[in-house]
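Board notes (copied after class):
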Amino acid sequence: MKDKRRIPPGKPLARERIAVLFAEAERIFPEHPEYSDRYVEIARKIAMRERVRIDTEFRRRYCHHCYRYLVPGANMRVRVHPGHVAVTCLSCKKRPGTGWRNDMTTKNDPAMQDLKPTVWIGKQGCTEATVEEIVAQLKKRKTIKVKWLQNTEVDPEAVAAAAKAELVSVRGKTMVLAQSGKKGKN
């Protein structure tokens, strides 16, 4: 019976050739963009023939409608939105794929704006009791919003470190804290 776990000998070679073709496409694009488009076409044919999936880093480099090699600023427009990156091919005016998520999602999350402050820091500043309250609130909820008075000096990083929490964002006299992703080993 045929061993299904064994990788066919052509697949690693196909992946290597696809990587070389995309490297050549990047190198030759400034002088001959049409050569880059041809290299993408050849890479796609190799992937289809060998039934190999093109890696994500390479898939983002060509338009899935007109199959042109994409270079930001030359034939591709990139717009960063809260939560995702929108890419538009300037040759066919279409959006290849749906873009990809960026790491700014937690900072610009609308849910953070709807979050009501649950801890207030008063005239005395950040005391031990305040830190204990922040820790207790974080055990109940994953994220909390902390506000302080305008005449009070508070260092948000120090408060987050004292509460062993992650500082998500700071705006004016308000900060958002989340449970720290690091768990203690027992």
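Comment from the instructor: Residues 110-179 form a domain with the Translation Initiation Factor IF3 fold (CATH 3.30.110.60). The helical segments are 10-28, 33-50, 56-59, 110-114, 128-140, 156-162.
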